[in-house]
Design goal:
Blueprint lengths: L1 H18 L4 E2 L2 E2 L9 E2 L1 H8 L3 H9 L7 E3 L2 E5 H9 L5 H9 L2
Antiparallel strand pairs: 1-2, 3-5, 4-5
Length: 103
């Protein structure tokens, strides 16, 4: 039994070491959340607004948030626009677009 426990602990040690490695996609490290990407995905917008993705889709469909940019099958938002929209008090899309035309 002690031999098996020794093998199991070695397995978990290897797993723990792997958790500290950066995630890789196609051989390149995954960008961290600290990177200031100008375009963000639905999950990032939902996290910034502290709502679920489903609620974000409902707000978007109802015209209560800024328009997203469609890139292929993905919809992305401009990070700075979302931050400015939140600072402005999350106005509906029509009001938000009117506010931005004046700038």
């Amino acid at each position: 039994m002690s031999a098996k426990r020794g093998n199991v602990s070695k397995y978990f040690e290897k797993v723990d070491k792997r958790k500290n490695l950066p995630k890789q996609i196609n051989g390149e490290p995954e960008p961290s959340q600290d990177d200031e990407n100008p375009m963000i995905l639905v999950a990032d917008v939902a996290k910034m607004c502290r709502i679920s993705r489903a609620m974000l889709y409902k707000l978007h469909a109802a015209g209560k948030m800024p328009r997203g940019v469609k890139l292929g099958n993905l919809t992305r938002w401009r990070r700075q626009e979302i931050l400015d929209w939140i600072k402005a008090g999350c106005p509906p899309r029509e009001k938000w677009e009117a506010m931005n035309r004046k700038k």
